[in-house]
Write a structure and sequence with these properties.
Order of helices and strands of chain B: HHHHHHHEEHHHHHHEEHHHHH
Helix content of chain A: 40-55%
Number of helices of chain B: 18
Largest interface: A-B, 77 and 65 residues
Radius of gyration of chain A: 35 Å
Distance between the termini of chain B: 31 Å
Distance between the termini of chain A: 52 Å
Structural class of chain A: alpha+beta
Strand order of the largest sheet of chain B: 1-2
Helix content of chain B: 55-70%
Shape of chain A: elongated
Oligomer: heterodimer
Structural class of chain B: mainly alpha
Number of strands of chain A: 20
Shape of chain B: globular
Number of helices of chain A: 24
């Protein structure tokens, strides 16, 4: 899914078609604001048709009707476009759901080399079935690995081509239907009935089929309905007020339907009304772009409100692995021997720790290492780490070089008749108390020195937390480390608080405490024991590699299983709300200019200063834009109103620019752009359109 | 100001003193008001023995029901009193009972704190009706508004409860410990200035021209005091505070002006202290003061054209313009000049003040809760722009709150537009105008604006004592009152139930200058978008026609 289709011609063409399909009254009725525009368009079309029959057709009415329809179509288009991308994604997901045949085995045959296998279509699976999957098989449905270990290619849903390991027991047991086993063999217990699988739910979500309006979207819609009703009252009473004034001016004129419909459509908040659902859908879409699937739009919205983040230390704050940061010799004389021993014992060690030792040595003692490299050559025999010895190293030139946990290496040295000096042991203790892991390095019966492995805080994470703090979000680090270690890392990373020696219960308790104080909490987790906390958190993101229980409990799933995502999710939530607010403000601010364009045009005949001139009404003085004619003024406003929807579609889909700053700074910025901009823009736009209309259609109107 | 300006230095000094007094006295009054609702056990047990429960707190529904009950009883009693006053005591001038529609209109008008006057006090009300009927409602309707503001403030100070306070306790204490003592003090002062306070029949005097002149008397001072303090505005005499017995001296004029704004100006501060958001309360006060200053500046600018027609010579143009602003920003509605005779711009501003929803100081309590609705609306729009679910003083604004806010803000507007349109097509209603053209339209628009906004000031010029106007205005007044109070209490109920979200750097500040400016912006834009077309066809046309000398 990382390889998302961007704006292909196909999506755009599809959206154009959908814009017309969505003209169905039932679809229109769902959005009150646009339904009003729809009714105005229908009504005016009726008027035009009647006048066509009477051979009394007016170019003004035709043009207005046309642009009212465009307004409806543009709004439909924005929605269709945002849905289109989701639909394209759903299409690619659906392909993974090809009907396969599952090989079902019996409970008794688990672990048996040649189990009795029955065949069943994957569409007929029931919860509890045991499916045997071997290298090359598609996993028939969502489930849990209950036996074996396998590498799984999940690129169909994550877009990530590197296979991931799934094994029975532990926190990496969940498998998703439609992914492919790329090595080994596993037995999967099916936990979701077909049709309700993860992929099925994803399809529904990205297609928008199961999209429910979120609480804030509903609240905003209500406000828009309220505003629309007021404007209906304003426009509804206007013909009467106009009639009064016309009578008093001794005129027989009245306001035409085209004029009233134009004014109504211009005043009601069509900009936000037309773009509202596109904003919501594209918010979900932006999450999907980052490989996060939200189970509901509500969770996305809640993410914007989150003010406490519970972050796991490992993988989020620190690089997942410990890295060598320092190498200290037991005595000055043994220094070069230590370098040699450390290098040889790590040169073939492929673990991140081993590699980090080589990097450290190359950086600090480059020349020495270079000669060692050629010396090591083929004679080196690597001894890998084992859980029993808790050491790794190499044999070369008749010597044994080892590095490993202090007590393990100490035992090994002592078994060879050597002794570890008290100074070295003390140094190791000191490192441990600061939160680092000491590795003792030895050559045969000689303990040479200690390598310090340290948690490395991710680059840039401190700045990121500072930005979050500016936005009013507190970060809490969760770690299994002892309090001293935790405090050291917390200080280095710049988190606001930490929980050391954390257990899943403590996470849950902390979430409850924060919530009780009125905070909204987001967390990310993967294990089964994280499930209660994930469920309790306002925004719980489960990692896709996690257990089925965790995936069920969270309200979002991160397909890439990258804990840093939590921060992205919060930002997307904020951006979603910001986009809605900014466009609403823009939409309402636009009305000021529209009044100045349309009212003088409507009232130009009233209270004439010169009885000979029908267009000498005293209210002509309000025409501060000096538009070319009343008809052109009204049409320009209608055209502006329609075009602004199209112009803002990219903004609705991308979201307004997010800046990390305090609420007041963000507010001022958005008010300037969308509030004041919203007042000014239509003055410029309407005048420009009026000039264009004047030069093209001047005579016709 | 051009050299021909009618304004003189003393006018500006008066204005400065007015502002200084308003700003310094409001916090003092706020303290008094808060002190007046300190519970006392002995009082509670005393009432308990009478079967009245002043202690048990009410939820929003119970509070609303109690409030509706007192309005219903009050209106019913007043209606009957006005119908039958002819055969009741304290009626030295033998004034007959009112017609049903006038009695209805008057009863509704006084219980809703509108105090629209389709009658003339000296010719249509007995002393008993004035005192027992209108006087009582002058106190109660003001106290009810303050009680609702209390309930709203409590809802923001509390969390996870449905309790908003006890309505009877609030009503009782505000009336007896706050409004009554203040009104008594002010009445004594007014008597010292020459406002009449008498139960004698009217006096007939011979004028120098040899004709008879009836000089009406009555217990006016006690009525005038609460009329101003409680933002009621219903005059004892028909011409209200333009009458020399109601407003005899420049000093009485000045202090009456101050009395109109004092309590409404103290309420935002009370709200701030009670809700635990003092700075927000001060911010609301500042916004009100700013809008008032702007509208006053506008009125003074328009009246600078020095038109004396319809203005009381004793006070002059300056005081008339000042009064017209004060009385329409606050939902008072008393007048010391006929608004019909204001310049079109001033008249338009007076209308616009009311159309904003009577929130610039507004009525006692009602101005505050109306303003809070706008603050909620502003928070909703701006809160979204900072990327959070909007919250007002730590309470989330969801769909239910938005529905209630929209009704509270928009219903009065619908009433104004709807009834004005109705009057424009009913021949009898049109015939009540004394002017044609845009001015006639203004007369109608002003009447319904005043009714729906519960202001009660009259433009004059429109003969409103007819079944059509009495009934339509009654409906406008009732819906304009409860269409705001009930949504406000609903919101209070919902706020009290929510837990309070602690503020963070990501929370929209509800005390900043930015927020205050946005609030002003939202108020003006909502008001303008709703009423610009109507105002265009009334005062704006009239203003534009002024220099042309054309009449329609």
């Amino acid at each position: 899914m990382a390889k998302n289709p961007v704006w292909t011609q196909e999506i755009i063409l599809g959206a154009v078609v959908q814009s017309f399909v969505k003209l169905h009254p039932k679809t229109q009725f769902r959005n009150f604001v646009m339904f009003c525009v729809f009714l105005c368009s229908l009504g005016l079309t009726g008027v035009v048709l009647v006048s066509a029959v009477q051979r009394n057709i007016s170019a003004f009415e035709c043009n207005t009707a046309l642009w009212l329809w465009f307004t409806v179509l543009f709004a439909n288009f924005s929605e269709a476009l945002s849905e289109g991308r989701g639909r394209a994604q759903a299409e690619s997901l659906r392909k993974t759901r090809t009907q396969g045949v599952a090989r079902i085995i019996q409970e008794a045959d688990i672990g048996c080399a040649t189990p009795h296998v029955t065949h069943k279509s994957s569409a007929e699976l029931v919860v509890g079935d045991l499916a045997l999957c071997e290298s090359g098989d598609l996993i028939p449905g969502d489930g849990e690995v209950i036996w074996g270990i396998a590498a799984i290619d999940e690129s169909a849903i994550t877009g990530e081509s590197a296979p991931v390991i799934r094994e029975s027991g532990g926190d990496r047991s969940a498998v998703t239907g439609g992914t492919r086993v790329s090595s080994d063999r596993i037995i999967v217990r099916i936990t979701q009935a077909p049709g309700d699988s993860f992929v099925d739910r994803m399809i529904k979500l990205v297609e928008g089929a199961s999209r429910q309006r979120t609480p804030n979207e509903i609240a905003l819609s209500i406000l828009l309905v309220g505003l629309t009703i007021v404007f209906i009252a304003v426009i509804g009473t206007l013909p009467i007020f106009f009639g009064y004034a016309a009578t008093e001016s001794h005129l027989g004129s009245h306001l035409s339907f085209a004029m009233l419909a134009s004014l109504l459509v211009c005043l009601i908040p069509t900009t936000i009304g037309g773009l509202l659902s596109a904003i919501g859908i594209s918010g979900m879409d932006r999450l999907i772009q980052r490989n996060v699937i939200a189970k509901s739009g509500k969770a996305v919205e809640a993410a914007g409100d989150v003010d406490v983040l519970l972050l796991d230390k490992t993988g989020t704050i620190t690089l997942g692995n410990r890295m060598a940061s320092r190498i200290v010799a037991g005595s000055p004389e043994s220094e070069s021997q230590l370098t040699r021993a450390a290098y040889l014992s790590s040169a073939s060690d492929d673990t991140p720790e081993g590699r980090s030792i080589v990097v450290l040595l190359k950086n600090s003692k480059g020349k020495e290492v270079l000669t060692l490299n050629s010396e090591a050559g083929d004679a080196l025999k690597f001894v890998p780490f084992s859980a029993r010895t808790r050491m790794s190293g190499a044999d070369a030139g008749g010597s044994e070089y080892r590095k490993g946990a202090v007590d393990a290496v100490r035992t090994w040295v002592e078994s060879k008749g050597g002794k570890v000096s008290a100074g070295l042991l003390q140094l190791a203790d000191q490192m441990a108390s600061q939160g680092s892991t000491p590795l003792l390095v030895a050559q045969d019966n000689q303990a040479l020195g200690v390598i310090e492995l340290k948690d490395i805080v991710k680059g840039g994470i401190r700045e990121r937390f500072a930005q979050l703090r500016k936005m009013g979000i507190r970060t809490v680090m969760i770690t299994g480390d002892n309090p001293k270690t935790a405090a050291a890392i917390a200080a280095e990373a710049g988190v606001d608080d930490f929980i050391a020696e954390a257990t899943p219960e403590m996470k849950l308790e902390r979430i409850r405490k924060e919530q009780k104080e009125g905070h909204l909490v987001a967390m990310i987790g993967d294990g089964t024991n994280d499930a209660p906390a994930l469920a309790q958190a306002d925004v719980g993101i489960a990692m896709n590699t996690g257990t089925q229980a965790a995936r069920e409990a969270g309200n979002m799933v991160d397909l890439e299983s990258n804990p840093t995502k939590l921060i992205d999710v919060v930002e997307i939530g904020k951006q979603l709300l910001m986009t809605r607010g900014s466009l609403t403000t823009f939409s309402i601010a636009n009305d000021v200019a529209k009044y100045f364009a349309i009212l003088p045009a409507l009232f130009i005949t009233l209270y004439p200063l010169n009885p000979e001139d029908a267009r000498s009404g005293v209210l002509g003085a309000l025409d501060i834009m000096k538009l070319s004619s009343p008809e052109s003024a009204i049409l320009s406003a209608v055209i502006f109103n329609a075009l602004i929807i199209v112009a803002l579609i990219p903004l609705a889909l991308k979201g307004v620019k997010l800046i990390s700053a305090s609420a007041d700074v963000v507010l001022r910025r958005n008010v300037w752009i969308y509030g004041f901009g919203g007042i000014i823009a239509p003055f410029v736009g309407i005048k420009a359109i009026d000039i264009i209309i004047g030069s093209f259609l001047g005579g016709a109107l | 100001m051009p050299w021909s300006s009618p304004y003189v230095l003393t006018n500006w000094i008066e204005l400065a003193v007015f502002f200084v007094l308003l700003i310094t006295l409001a916090p003092l009054l706020a303290r008094w008001l808060i002190a007046s609702i300190k519970p006392s056990a002995s009082e509670a047990s005393c009432f308990a023995s009478l079967g009245v429960d002043l202690k048990t707190e009410m939820n929003w529904k119970q509070y609303s029901l109690a409030l509706l009950f007192i309005h219903l009883i009050g209106a019913g009693f007043l209606f009957l009193l006005l119908l039958t006053q002819g055969s009741l005591p304290l009626n030295p001038m033998h004034i007959p009972g009112m017609s049903w529609d006038l009695a209805l209109n008057t009863a509704v008008s006084f219980v809703t704190n509108t105090n629209w006057q389709a009658y003339s006090g000296e010719s249509q009300l007995s002393y008993l009706s004035q005192m027992l009927g209108l006087g009582v409602q002058n106190f109660l309707s003001a106290a009810v508004g303050i009680a609702v503001a209390f309930a709203l403030a409590r809802s923001l100070a509390r969390e996870k409860t449905s309790e908003l306070g006890n309505f009877w306790f609030d009503l009782w204490r505000v009336t007896t410990r706050f409004l009554l003592p203040m009104a008594a003090l002010f009445a004594v002062f007014l008597i010292s200035q020459g406002v009449v306070q008498s139960f004698d029949p009217y006096v007939t005097a011979k004028t120098i021209e040899g004709t008879d002149q009836v000089i009406p008397l009555g217990p006016a001072a006690s009525q005038v005091a609460i009329k101003q303090l409680g933002t009621n505005g219903g005059g004892f005499f028909g011409v209200n505070s333009a009458h020399p017995f109601e407003n005899p001296t420049p000093l009485s004029n000045f202090l009456q002006l101050l009395a109109i704004l004092l309590i409404p100006a103290a309420i935002p501060l009370v709200f701030g202290r009670m809700s635990g958001h003092q700075r927000h309360g001060r911010m609301l006060f500042g916004v009100m003061l700013g809008l008032f200053t702007a509208t006053l500046a506008g009125s003074l600018y328009f009246e600078n054209m020095a038109n004396m027609e319809g203005k009381e010579v004793r006070f002059g143009v300056f005081d008339s313009a000042l009064w017209s602003s004060v009385t329409t920003v606050a939902s008072n509605g008393s007048v010391n000049a006929m608004h019909d005779s204001l310049m079109p711009g001033t008249g338009g501003l007076a209308m616009f003040n009311m159309q904003l929803g009577e929130i610039v100081f507004g009525g006692t309590g009602s101005g505050l809760y109306g303003m809070v609705l706008f603050a909620v609306l502003t928070v909703f729009l701006c809160g979204l722009m900072v990327g959070r679910t909007p919250e007002y003083l730590g309470k989330k604004i969801g769909g239910r709150e938005v529905i209630a806010t929209s009704i509270g803000i928009l219903l009065p507007s619908l009433l104004i537009l709807g009834f004005t349109a109705l009057a424009c097509v009913v021949p009898a209603a049109l015939a009540a105008r004394t002017n044609s053209g845009p001015h006639g339209f203004s007369e109608i628009l002003y009447a319904f604006t005043s009714g729906a906004a519960n202001n009660g000031s009259a433009f004059g010029g429109l003969s409103v004592n007819s079944v059509f106007y009495n009934v339509t205005l009654s409906i406008a007044m009732v819906l304009g009152r409860f269409g705001v109070i009930l949504p406000v209490l609903f919101i209070a109920g919902s706020f009290a139930k929510q837990k309070t979200i602690p503020p963070s750097a990501g929370t929209l500040s509800s005390t900043s200058v930015t927020f205050a400016l946005l609030l002003v912006g939202v108020i003006l834009i909502v008001g303008a978008l709703t009423f610009i077309p109507a105002l265009t066809l009334g005062p704006i046309v009239e203003h534009l026609l002024l220099p042309t000398g054309k009449k329609f």
